[in-house]
Amino acid sequence: MVRIFSRSLRFRFLAALGGVLLLALISLGALSQWVIFPALHKEERAVVMQELEQIERSLQISQKELLAQVRDWAIWDDTYEFIQGYYPGYTDTNFSQQMFEEMRYQLMVFFNAEGQVHFIAGINPATDLYTTCHTMERECGWAEGLIRTMQASIEEDPQQGKSNLYAGSPPLMVASNPILRTDESGPPQGWLFKVRPMDGAWRDIIEDYTGLPTTLSMVDAPIDKEVAVTITGNTIQAQRYLPTYPHNEQIELGTHLNRTSYLASLETFRYVLLWTACLMLLVIALVLFLLERIILKPLRTLTQFTQQVSVDSADSANLIKRTDEIGVLARTFQQQFKHQKQLNAELIELSTHDALTGLPNRRLFDQRLQEVINIALVTGQPLSVMMLDIDHFKLFNDHYGHPEGDTCLQRVAQTMHDVATNQGFFIARTGGEEFSAMLSATSATQAIEKSEALSHAIDQLKYPHQLSPVAPHVTVSIGICQFDSTALMTPTALMTAADQALYAAKAAGRHCSVVYTPSLANTPFSSHNTPP
Fold first, then answer.
1. Which domain of life is it from (predicted)?
2. What is the dihedral of CA 30, 33, 39, 41, to 10 degrees?
3. 477 Cβ partners below 8 Å, 6+ apart?
């Protein structure tokens, strides 16, 4: 009987397979002990490090955002003139406690060209009171130490244009930039610093953005290593130590991962290895068959589906109708793809359009202007631009209040948009009450006609403006300039010429349109000679 079994192919196959299975069990045990489990531990550390890196990237994004905001303020003609003492109304127009709270600023400090304090605005963290000062004394004395550190930074690196972390409780995110003209010409006339506290509210934002628990604290003693990973019970923690200015303290940025599910996964993995070995012989043939019918073929269809989401096909339709995990995955992917497209569209809309009026913003206007100038240079067609300003809008805001001022801007902007749509040109909001338009294939003469249509449409609104010396309703002044291809005008030069024409219109009594001529270039119009 034994000899019969020994000659049986089935027995030989089973014996060979049993030997292979025993060898596989021994190999799996050794592999799990010396390779798999250490690799899982390494992967666990890598996961928590990835979470920490994601939080750190969010911190870096927050720093870049604050630096961009500082640069927007510092490279601005109004700020450039304010630091020289030529714009007394700058602080009233641009500063308020509401702005500080909405932007999560704690402090803004303007330094003049000698590095001395020119203006301070901030919220005292001890009292939550908003104060503005021209010195570090009295109400702004709480910021003296921080301002001294800023002055030391200026002495070390006058170029600035950077973002640092300052030690404090809580730590502070500080960004700075030299104060220059909008076109960045000429020497800097001072420096602007903005401070944002990295407090509990900031951590809540980071946690909402990343979905990860975040810790932030100061470390008194210097830590030699940049990253530390520790395991305490069922928790694995990772900390990164960030330097602060002036490099005498460190910030500990950390996160943690609960190991309960990981430890359970290890235990489950051991059982999986055992049962896999026991069932390998019985299920391998069935697995190969089912793998092709249930897994591989649907996965190939799913791959094609993910590569061609917008393409309708019978296979894609059947894939979405499936009731198993692959069907759920296909539907989820389709939903996520549509959601991502929607988010991308909303992001593009937010980055290129003004939030209050819905009109394109300065960024989109500048981008389009360069494009239409290039087209005008190639085709030789005329190109005109307009700058429009609501007459005496500051008086309107002072009399009716800023909420009503916002409503006025929205009504005027909608009217301008309607006229621009009918007349076939592009208009954007490029300042507080300032709008700009570009008119392709339009000469200065044609631009005057369209400007009159704009002015007439706004007049028809009859939006009350009791304090306006021009009219009892809201009116606009318009400056026009035609692009001179022979002079190779830059976008900045073109808009500067339109701006000079605008101020010529204001000087002429407002509620009118003026076309730029070379004689206006030497006329001393400025935003401070003519009230807004």
1. Bacteria
2. 170
3. 388, 389, 391, 502, 505, 506, 510, 511, 512, 513
Q: How many CB atoms lie within 10 A of CB 511?
A: 19
Closest CA to 315 of 328, 326, 302: 302
Please give the helix or strand (H or E) that residue 338 lies within, else none. helix 325-352
Q: What is the pTM of this model?
A: 0.47
Summarised one tens digit per residue, pLDDT across range 351-376 is 789 989 999 999 999 999 999 999 99
Partners of 175 in the β-ladder? 163, 194
CB–CB of 142/234 below 8 Å?
no
Ordered by where they begin, the domains of the chain are 50-258 (3.30.450.20), 362-522 (3.30.70.270)
CB atoms inside a 10 Å sphere around CB 75: 20
Cβ(229)–Cβ(48) below 8 Å: yes
Dihedral pair phi/psi, residue 450, rounded to 5°? -70, -30
Q: Distances in Å between the alpha carbon of 492 and those of 63, 71, 483, 489?
A: 29, 18, 11, 8
Q: What is the DSSP string of 199-268?
A: SHHHHHHHHHHH-S--EEEEESS--SSSEEEEEETTEEEEEEEEE-BTSSSEEEEEEEEE-HHHHHHHHH
Task: Give the pLDDT confidence score for residue 331 in this predicted structure.
Answer: 73
Are the C-beta atoms of 443 and 382 separated by less than 8 Å?
Answer: yes
